[in-house]
Amino acid sequence: MVVEKEHKGKFRTKLEEIFGFDLRSLALFRIGLALVIIADLLIRWQDIQAHYSDYGVLPRTALIEEFLKPWYWSIHLLSGQPFVQALLFGFALFFALLLLIGYRTRFATIVSWAMLISLHNRNPALLFAGDDTLRAILFWSMFLPLGAAYSVDSALNTSSKPLPKRVLSGATVGFIVQLCYIYMFSAWFKHQSPIWSEEGSAVYYALSFDRYATGFGQFLLSLTPLHKTMTFSALWFEWLGALLLFIPFRTNFFRCVAIVSFILLHISFGLSFTIGIFPALCIFAWLAFIPTSVWDWLDKKTHTQARSGLIINYDRDCGFCKKVVLFLRTFLILPRTTIRIALDYPSVYEDMQKYNSWVVEDWQGNRYFKWSGIIYVVSLSPILGFLAPILRLKPLMALGTKIYETIASNRRTAGKFTAPFKYTSLEVNPGWLFNLCTFLILGLVTLWNLTSFAHSYIFHRSPTKVSQSLRRVVNSRTAQRITWLGQLTRLDQSWSIFAPNPPRDDGWHVVVGNLKDGSEVDLLNNEPQINWDKPTIKQRNQLYQNMQWRTYFINLNRSIGQKLYPYYGRYLCQQWNDTDRSEKQLDNLDIYFMSERTVPPGETQDVEKQSHWQQSCSEPN
Q1: pLDDT 10s digits, 147-170
Q2: Alpha-helical runs (H) found in 334-393
């Protein structure tokens, strides 16, 4: 009986090691995820009118009539006014900040996920692989205890039961499998193409796509002899790299190998291609896998008598003071700090009254007050200790002391700033119903990934018994009846990143504006001389100021482009004519695409001038 229990205990430990997460790793991932969301919102904010209002490239009526799928929804459709869109952006940004500091973390994650779906559905012409990845990762994040460490929630945790170091649940399994799907389904798509699996020329075509080009990418493009090696290496690493997470022996070692390898992979992607938030998002996602042994090693390396002996005494009658002390202990990562009520220690309380200050004691019994106490506590932080010498500068000492004394004399007013942060009890071990639901969702995600592959054209080129069976499953009535769930939650995913083939439809747009006075203007460059030359990387970066514009111009040249051109043409007319150009009003414009389709290595590159759209500005289409 004892042996059986030990066997079950070892099995549970191994499962937790493979499919569980350390709470500190999840906290680090939460911070990175929130920063990505905030950065994405701020980048998109620059083009609120152009991308999300009725005065932009896709008015609401056009979206609803021509682009929006039946179960796609968007709160951003409530209004077409830029001001209302700015309010919605501000609302999303507020909850992203709550996610960053970890306050009401699960609720903040849910709201951030809902606002992200709403934003993405508002203009599908702007979406690329990074957006799909963010939606999928943020969805599973709703079920993870992201606020159990390094957060306001953990600082104000009232539970007497200590939290475990690790958590194992259906959500942790779902998150791991979802991340594996991103790489492995992408590899599956790629493997069906000869340029990935046979010729080894895929990296050449990917690096040749100028609309994603970077300086480093162009350098790699010049290393022709290495292209085949890079192609096969990337393909097989996507196939097998994620499997390192599931090796049952030396699990922590292989997990660390996987983390470092994938982080390096995404750094190389970020250097080689202009692909927005995608590299940073994936790097932060891999931080969630940092094993407990790494954290324990760091804890041991940073352990000192000074840190373990730190004591902070606060005034019992000051709720603001207690919360601030708890926040300092949490966010400065000083978990062994002892927090005490000064009144319980007469000599400490006497000093508190004498200096009208909290009392910070070091491990040798020395006491610090006011701003000096803050500096001493900061100096012990393993991550922010470098700030202490700066805080000791005379001007900052004087300013800091003045601020501290002002707050100490107005604690009731200061308390209003911390009053919204409420104490709460944290629990991280989910019940069986929670796990059952997450496993069911994982099953649906698996089905939708298989569906995307089964519906791809390359899948039908060489039919097999397996492909025929898969097609029957995904086309069954049951599968069709639950399609709406994938659209509603935007879990209808397809990971065809540079797959089955890298894009070859390269080129650049030229928009010729014909003014009413008979002259012409280059509308994209705002120059009187029409420039037909191929833009440099620097010129492209000026033209496509963010990934959304870059993706939009790529889509203009795809099948969706014929639906987009009328609204883009109207937008250009309005943008030009709404300014004070009484004698230089636009009469009409012509949109050309200078097609430079990527040819096989060694062949001559040709450029073909294609007329894609004509727009009247006096009578818009």
Answers
A1: 999 999 999 999 988 999 999 999
A2: 346-355, 370-380, 388-391
